Amino acid sequence: MPGAPRVAFFGSPAFALPVLEAIRERFGVVLVVAQPDKPVGRGLKLTPPPVAARAAEWGLPLAQPGKLRGNAAFEAQLRESGADVAVTCAYGKILPASLLAVPPHGFLNTHTSLLPAYRGAAPIQWALIRGEAVTGTTVMQTDVGMDTGPVLLQEALPVAPEWTSVELADALSAQAARLIVEALANLPALTPTPQDERRATHAPMLTKEDGFVRWQESARAVVNRYRGVAAWPQTTAFLGGIRLKLGGLSAGEGRGQPGEVLRVDGEGLTVACGEGAVRIQTVQPEARKAQAAQVWAQGAGITPGTRFDPWEPPSA
Known about the structure:
By secondary structure, the protein is α+β, with helices and mostly antiparallel strands. The chain has two domains: 6-199, Formyl transferase, N-terminal domain (Rossmann fold); 208-300, Formyl transferase, C-terminal domain (Methionyl-tRNA Fmet Formyltransferase, Chain A, domain 2, Roll). It contains eight helices and 17 strands. Helix 1 (17-26) runs parallel beside helix 6. Its EC number is 2.1.2.9.
């Protein structure tokens, strides 16, 4: 591999764009691979993922295979691209062993956690939900497991206490862009370090249920969950069976029954948790716009003593 490596880039969402841009500035991108176009909006207009749109804008070779396993034509396309190495960043598909073997230097993956912690689809979100003060980025050699390959580079990132998944994703995207350039520049000299399986934790894909407020938990846990699900599915509570989206949650002071409204004032709604209380700044009923919590409470007749519906785990 004389000189800079030729890179095939696999990614789909906007999160991956800074990584693609950083690679393009330093190395030759011989192929960009993204997920297929999907229907978006009320009109269900077929829309390319952000990485595919940027590749088309730059005139880079683009592939959007619907499947990878058993796709001989796509494997041939990757081989013919002349890529020395492939990089994945939030691509969103499992890579079969036959594909991993195509580039001479295999696949590198940028993963937004300090592996082996938070393997899986939602490491940013679960790190926040679980109240981590530090996370980071790992550049790993991809194997057939779920984020189980050896670590090539790793760097920690302190998590600001006010960050939601939106701000943390921005910070980790910038960190991943810098680390992957370092990894590619030093590719032959990198030493793979196996992960310690005993320390592995998991970060499964979020569901709508993960956004429901667990009033019986501590105020800090409720706020951490709000931070983690800020991008999707957002924070949801129920009052008399009516679904409400809650915004601007922060830990406050107060004691009461979990889910009990303690105060309604200019700071919003103060609601008791299993330990402490949370302040809520905005409330959005279904099919309506978000309102200041005090305005919503006055219109809905919410007074101290009103209780939100308890959360119950789904039946097995």
